[in-house]
Amino acid sequence: MIARRAILDDRQTYHKTMSVRQIKRSRRFMQRSELKKHPRLRRLRYIQFVSVALMLAGFVGSNLSFQNMHATWPVKFGSGLALLVGGCGVIAVKWKLNRFIIDLETAADAQEPSSLLATPAALLKRELRYFKGYTISIGILVACLFLQLQFLPTTVIAQVNTTTSSSNGNVQQIQQVKPVATKTTTGEKMAMFTQYHKVITTYDLSTDEVTYKYHVIQDGKITWYVLTGDSEDYTSAHFYYLVKVDAHQNVQMYDFLDEQGAKTGLNGLVPAYRSLKGTKVKLGSLVAAYTKQPEFSGYVRQMHSGENWQLPSKK
Hints:
Distance between the termini: 76 Å
Mean pLDDT: 76
Number of strands: 7
């Protein structure tokens, strides 16, 4: 910006009746007029427009893919590649057009030093250094965005997958994962709760002939989720765990004292339960931690929708 201001001030010494703003507009008009005279340069402007559109589409696509944990790797990579290619296209075209303008200003200075389009050689060198720095900065920014959007989600999941000597360590890791705002189905929520419950208790669902059903209980601003299982070996429904999600998307896990015991909890809907202390976590953290893991889809397939239960009034 300093180099450009110096160029405008230099032109004002020859055109004292014109303001800096007028000189700037006149130079821009003359430059564009010269660009329009060359078909090849006009094509470069079209390429620049396409590159900008490609870069913006790639950035939006990569950002949405990052927020949507169900996006496949090819989609994420394709969006990032569009961002990278579009950014490189913009830089290359901008460099080519800028070199043409510099040559144009050099020729104008040699023919008529007082021309509005002319620029002294010393100031052109400063302008060229400024543009080189600008180009390198944009290139680094585009490359950093590409790397961040492609590999940051993988890094987050890798932190969650790190094994520790106790389940409590893994719970703390999941609690510290940055939450993401992504809509999920009830079945997907139950799959996340099941995986989180496994980390807490080391208990995993059986792959035998057990049908797992979830039930939703609405209690004002609080939503309860219950996972049950039915099998020929069970004389009655088997209760696995209970989850409470409040209005602020805080998740609290509960275990049942007797998974087939008398229904004394939640006004007679479920067996007696207890809170699993130290397991409170944001729903968005579970989304970020689990929905990208390979086994997540398998857990989702195990979840079957049961009836939504109504919370009985207290007797």
